[in-house]
From TrEMBL:
GO terms for biological process: methylation; siroheme biosynthetic process. Keywords: Methyltransferase, Porphyrin biosynthesis, S-adenosyl-L-methionine, Transferase. Residues 267-493 form the Tetrapyrrole biosynthesis uroporphyrinogen III synthase domain. CDD domains: HemD, SUMT. NCBIfam families: cobA_cysG_Cterm (TIGR01469), PRK06136.1 (NF004790). GO terms for molecular function: uroporphyrin-III C-methyltransferase activity; uroporphyrinogen-III synthase activity. This is uroporphyrinogen-III C-methyltransferase.
Length: 505
């Protein structure tokens, strides 16, 4: 067996958007992922489902696995010939002990690469409006570990740090904040020097306290600041209120779970992130072509018999054209003079991507409205082919039944498969109020979410839903559910903004 390889990947400070492009590409091909507690939920959600996951903990004061064992795990997994990603919060070489992990790999001749990460000592102040250097205040920045062993004094030359006249950034130092400030004051630092403690920067949990070096420990205690947090000391901290930008975004402080079919890029997630939300994408469902294809292939051989072809989802479009029509060596010409109906903007976009513009799309995006529109416009004795999910609801069929002359072929082309994940404690985060809301774009994603979180108390969930059926599915589980005015992605985003503004999330 060939030797595997290890990648040390910096996951950044928390915001999934700050994972580098190279880091994301390497992670997508990983076969084993060894990860830290400080890796953001959004990045963890990007770990491939096929990869084996090994949680080594590593948060201040709480190490699930000793460093020596982590080094050994990397070696053993690589020797199996696997692609191993060591996923570390921040940057692997900045107090991340990445150098120690490479020593054993180097001795054993295991190939490796280092993918640098966006470090919290720069990014977290930036998200709080604090430039760590500014020509009017300082010309240097110094990064110091705030962590020390229990009962031991700091091995830090506070006097030398004070004499630099630069910005000081202490990582992992919240518990030692009083000692750090005391050391600086005893070294002669001006008690009125601006300083800040920054909690959970770049995420929805971001908070900051700005005070003086003399007052910062008490101010942080009074504010209830929690780890992970960094400490910044220097005149640049006085710019925080003036330059702060993250908290001004419409969805700053909102953490949203967005469920979607696996393999589908989520425009919903991107829009929410642009507005400041921390988004956790959980592909709770996937779609797979039906295993028994005989009936599907039989219908496709008789396409000329149908006057209407009706799609109710983007997945239905993709499966129909890519899995069945293409494999039969047929293209859009096989549709002949058939008219096309689509349910929803996403379905219409999937058709337009194939050069097909729907002849009919109801203004209200639900099955009943589509069925009613079809019943109104279909020619006498029309035959309708309805390729869709095997668990499709009956509303469209009930609406079409108003026309007894219509012949409807309800054709199951794909099955919905529910997924579970063990990387993120959603039940705990909802219970602690750390997740603001869940965003659902279909009733099937509601069911997939429920399947993925069997231990969750659904009464703790606020749900933003794209339509009536989706909202009904959420409420049946006990969620507090709200419905967007229109069944569009933009309308759901507007709903989330409104819910925040009204204090409902």
């Amino acid at each position: 067996m060939s030797t595997g390889k290890v990648w040390l990947v910096g996951a950044g400070p928390g915001d999934a958007g700050l994972l580098t492009i190279k880091g994301a590409n390497v992670l997508a091909r990983a076969e084993v992922v060894v990860y830290d507690s400080l890796v953001g939920d959004g990045v963890l959600a990007m770990v491939p489902e096929s990869a084996r996951r090994i949680n080594v903990g590593k948060r201040a004061g709480n190490h699930t696995m000793p460093q020596e064992e982590i080094n050994q795990v990397l070696l053993e997994e690589a020797r199996k010939g696997l692609r191993v990603v060591r996923l570390k919060g921040g940057d692997p070489f900045l107090f991340g002990r990445g150098g120690e992990e490479l020593e054993l790999l180097t001795e054993a001749g295991i190939p490796y690469e280092v993918v640098p990460g966006v470090t919290s000592c720069i990014a977290v102040p930036a998200y709080n409006g604090i430039p760590v250097t500014h020509r009017d205040f300082c010309s240097s920045v110094h990064v110091i570990t705030g962590h020390k062993k229990a009962g031991e004094a700091y091995d830090i030359d506070f006097k030398a740090l004070k004499e630099t006249k630069g910005t000081l950034v202490f990582l992992m130092g919240l518990k030692a904040l009083p000692d750090i400030c005391r050391g600086l004051l005893e070294a002669g630092m001006d008690p009125a020097m601006p300083a800040a403690v920054l909690q959970q920067g770049t995420t929805a949990g971001q908070r900051r306290v700005v005070a003086t070096v003399a007052d910062l420990p008490e101010a942080a205690k009074k504010a209830g600041i929690r780890t992970p947090a960094i400490i910044v000391v220097g005149k640049v901290c006085s710019l925080a209120e003036r330059f702060g930008w993250y908290e001004k975004l419409p969805l700053a402080g909102v953490k949203a779970v967005v469920t979607r079919p696996r393999k589908l890029i989520s425009s919903m997630a991107e829009k929410l992130r642009t507005l400041g939300a921390e988004v956790l994408e959980l592909p709770a469902i996937s779609v797979e072509p039906v295993k028994d294809r005989q009936r599907v292939l039989g219908c496709l051989e008789r396409l000329e018999e149908y006057q209407w072809l009706v799609f109710t989802s983007p997945s239905g479009v993709d499966i129909f054209f890519d899995e069945f029509l293409r494999k039969m060596q047929k293209d859009v010409r096989a549709l002949g003079a058939m008219k096309i109906a689509a349910l929803g903007g996403g379905t219409a976009r999937a058709l337009r991507a194939r050069g097909i513009f729907p002849d009919l799309m109801p203004q209200t995006y639900d099955g009943a409205s589509l069925g009613q529109e079809l019943a109104r416009v279909c020619e006498p004795n029309a035959k309708i082919l309805l390729p869709r999910a095997a668990i499709g609801n009956r509303e469209i069929l009930e609406a079409l039944a108003a026309r007894q002359d219509l012949v409807v072929e309800d054709l199951a082309t794909y099955d919905t498969v529910y997924h579970t994940q063990d990387l993120i404690d959603e039940a705990g985060e909802f219970a602690r109020g750390e997740i603001s809301c869940a965003v659902f774009t279909s009733a099937s994603t509601v069911r997939g979410f429920a399947n993925a979180c069997p231990d969750l108390d659904f009464t703790k969930v606020k749900a933003a839903c794209i339509g009536r059926q989706t909202c009904q599915a959420a409420r049946q589980l006990g969620m507090t559910a709200y419905t967007a005015e229109k069944a569009t992605v933009d309308s759901v985003v507007e709903l989330v903004i409104r819910l925040k503004a009204e204090g409902n999330i």
